[in-house]
């Protein structure tokens, strides 16, 4: 009897599938059982070939060979993972195998991982699809009991391949054009460039901003404060003399309440998490980067089986999941969640109807706990924090709205108007579970007011005259940039195209990599928690063709790609249009009269080519890189470490290389690295905190992989640098 081959995306997932399916016989890159053979990829095993594969002329980066428009896009086996590809290919063609189950991640990218392997290997046997949203034993068994026909996902594959090819055609052509034209390591892409443009636009607004002085007048009435306002309820006073006059006019005068207005307010529980919302909150609360949060979520999904599939853009559940919710509640009924779950069961609360909507779930539902109980002691601090966020958000959806009365008190004194705002809580509702990431501005400005009635009077005890300046727009953080990427429709004027912006710039699965790419390309640097475009990033936005930096491009592409996934659009026509677009972009760059200037050049000389080195800021310190795109030399200068100073216990920086590595702290402490560790070794062996920190660092190094285009792009640049013939 022929066996069924199961293809997973990663070894860890493959081994879990094998365990559930009873495949215990070990092999080289696979596990075998009576009915199934389980093997795995290592992320992508196959990718789009680099330009060099289409001819010798593309080995040298030159404007003369652009645009690069292959008649048919070729696939290549990734050299680093070719051994595992050979294992998978041999199994695919084994006489023992009669059919295949695609068990890669249930999404567009996962479909691409598997289909490219099958296409490269020339596989033509029957194909089924495993489509599940959690990695629990129960989910796996149910998934295999309800396998889908592989043909049902072929259009999804065509859509994914079209996106990958379009990114190759536009990204690599424009990158080579910019790099050759301006002799600098410049890159551009459909998602990366408009994302960078958002940061540059905000930076330009900040630079143009001229602050203005204004004043506010507050009166202390003993039990509460009141604020002056004009007839339009504006509290800012631009004229200092006027502010001073009002302050003097009401000093020690009597205030009388003219109106006490109470209005009912209600805030429903926040929706369940999708990946982007979770990344936003993790950045606000813990300063985790989007990439870091995604990696933590992958571990909670794959290793701990605690949470459902992370790479989702939906914040809703389907109706068929509702009967499983009691079991999921029981799974989290421990620790700090115990009293909350107990109340949910005791009062027979059900999940909010607003959270259940089949029409708003695409590939995957919102992120929620699985039916499997987790030992919290097995989670590290990062995992526990993210797990807690998801569980609390899940539990809030079983609670009613937060209801309150808004109280606004109007007062007069010496003909001037004042007001105070507060609120009276009627029903705490979901706020019993989650206080929220931050209060809104209105709630933060409110105060606890005494029992007040119209006609009551108070004497002014003190005056607060505060001088302030208008503030410029805030720089983006990774959290607010994710919001802008998710919903860039305000940057699109065409109303018909707004609806096709869909999930925005990139997908929940790719946005983290896009932001990381901005850092690694030295287009953006971090100051505190703020993202600031570098001179290189600012200049790039001035050099790229105008429509490449507009979100509208993504809107147009999403419209076509959505049609391809539904079988309504012709893939060939879409790629033909993209080739024409890539050609036009290259011509625009070639005809540009702009110039690029290295504003971060140092007096240090590159040891390999003799040119001046550039100083760049990375997320982990400072680095010297060669300005010549054909050289590619780089050296770390300063690295921010997690090693604490023995004097002030703050994190230190590491300078130099080799035997000259030196720790330095802002408090003045300095020590050669080898002597520092020798000294610490003598003082004590590794503390529990050191061990935990080491393990956390190791976890953070685990990377689920990047997109095929990102890998091809990076390898193309790297290969060119090594050969010195970009």
Number of strands: 25
Biggest β-sheet: strands ordered side by side in the sheet: 2-3-4-1-7-8-9
What is the average of the pLDDT values? Answer: 88
CATH architecture of the largest domain, by name, is Orthogonal Bundle
Low-confidence runs (pLDDT<50, min 5 residues)? 701-709, 720-726
CATH 4th-level superfamily of the largest domain: Topoisomerase I, domain 2
Helix content: 25-40%
User: Which secondary-structure class do the elements indicate?
Assistant: alpha+beta
Which range does the strand content fall in?
15-25%
Number of domains: 4
CATH topological fold name of the largest domain: Topoisomerase I, domain 2
Largest sheet: 7 strands, mixed
The DSSP helix count reads 22
Supply the CATH class of the largest domain. Mainly Alpha
